[in-house]
## 1
Amino acid sequence: MSGRRATIHDVAREACVSAATVSKILNGVQTVKRANVDRVQEAIRKLKYRADPVASELRQGQRRLIAAIVPELENSFFGALLQGIDEAAEAAGYKVIIGTSRESEDREIEVVQRMHDWRVAGAILVPVVSECGLGASKLSELGISSVLVDRVASSTIFDTVAADNYKASADVADYLAEQGHQQFLVHCATTTSQAIDNRARGFTDRLAERNGNASVDTLLHQPEADDQREQLRRYFDVKGCDAQPTAIFSLSQHSTLIALSELRRRALAIPEQVALVGFDDADWMQTTWPSITTVSQPVDEMARLAVKTLLTRLAKTADTIPVQHLEPCALCIRESTELDPTHNILRYAVEK
């Protein structure tokens, strides 16, 4: 067969029976003669036949394949999200096919089209930018039942699942303001998206409400890693010792790592001279010195809700109006903001 995948017809020829007989045996029909069952099972072993689930689902009119598309695979948040989606889908009898947009809307369109070619039943998309981006538009154009996750606000077309980035960042502002900080830097060295915008606005809006005299600098950029580090260095050089921020809020894991590296390069004591808060928890934030205070997103719950919401749509049991799921975050207090943190979860996340 020259490496070609064996088909049901190959098995039938090898066993000297009809394709219909092979199909009955594969589907567990008990009325087939024992001799035919034995020959078919031997042919399956010899040809190393495996059923084609896509073809089977198409024949039966049932598609149980879900697309999951994320901006990148190296980010631990997206990795955890994909794992949660895969586990929830498998528990419901679905399989997941994964694609990555690589932070490119042009590629996002290509991946969505490819998933459509695979005849997926539905899709879960973390868009490059927002619910108004090119990937979401392509999903709508192709009529693919979909749920948009993470970098989204409410949508008139799709159900959405996201962390409450705005409130989580407002809680960070409350926490740092109550520590007495007056000079802040909001820093992001990753692609600007709906989530990043919400985090920046949540922080700056709350500070404006609390203290109109607070000084807040915002440094959002999207260049290559070396340029990101250089921009942060120039920022500190221009500010000087007297005007430098006493607290930095970094809006992504990558941004937090760059900020931590720059503070160490300048030998600035953390948190005595500069407090550092990140967004989106990771193992390295817990094990580095000092350990990093950070916002932890409910990634497991977001994955579970995304699958549940999509399957509800596929079963046509959902209301026609798209729903928005906005999940609360928790702020984990560690050494980068407190010399001797006595607890790990900020009271705002528990009491409010």
Note: Residues 63-163+299-327 form a domain with the Rossmann fold fold (CATH 3.40.50.2300).
## 2
Amino acid sequence: MPSVTATELTCVYDGKASLGECAQWCVEEQALYWVDINAPSLNCFHPVTGTNVTMPMPASIGCYALRKKGGFVVALRDGIWLADARGTLERKIANAPYDPTHHRFNDGRCDRQGRFFAGSMNEKRDANSAALYRLDPDFALNPVLGDIMVSNGLAFSPDGKTMYHADTPTHTIRRFDYDTARGIPSKPRDFARFSAETDRPDGGTVDIEGNYWTAFYRGGKVLRISPDGRVLAEHAIPAMCPTMCALGGRDLKTLYVTTARQMRTPAELARLPQSGGIFAMRVEVPGIPEPQFSG
């Protein structure tokens, strides 16, 4: 595994999020959407001006997607909702498929065909009782993966025929064959497995060459992994808990990384005061425009 480089990631928005997550670049708006799960809000960061618009949510928000019809689909603790372009909830389209007293939605995104996926997590971390769900354009919610504790790392290859997924406590990213016609993953196998306690794969994304970027929660770094599972590069980040990677900018060659500051010690926050911010660096290979929900 290559050595960790000196940090190239610098803070572009010092938002001090409790649990920043789910970074997605919007090509049309040239803006980065992201969430703070704990101080529940959907946010829109504009890199040119350095400004951030906060859209408060009534409950923990795990993930979201922009809709082709306008507005958003958002996965809250109590279920999945449609929201308008200002983030105002309009109607619930699916109830939470778990007990919300100790489970919530976590990482998610759309596949290349415009289906919305949202994974859940067991906050007690005492059983593999979470799952990955697929929301179809007709708003039917179906489980597609089970036996999970913390669903994370969802991403799709450039051709959409490979799905990546991580269950963070297992320190493993898996890859699946993905049926683009039916929206069903199959044939799971290990893509990358790690052993160190802090090698905990969180959110990820894929570039146009099929390389997978992953953030190591509690590991203070992001990795770039080739389609055949080789670690190509590691980049240190001045925050111990990076949470998700997204590729954006006008040429899709800016890597954005959200981070968290929840449950970090005062000493660590004094050493890494921008924890909870959004970090960025330039990369050589561009990303892929984020698909929007077809429903």
Note: The chain has one helix and 24 strands.
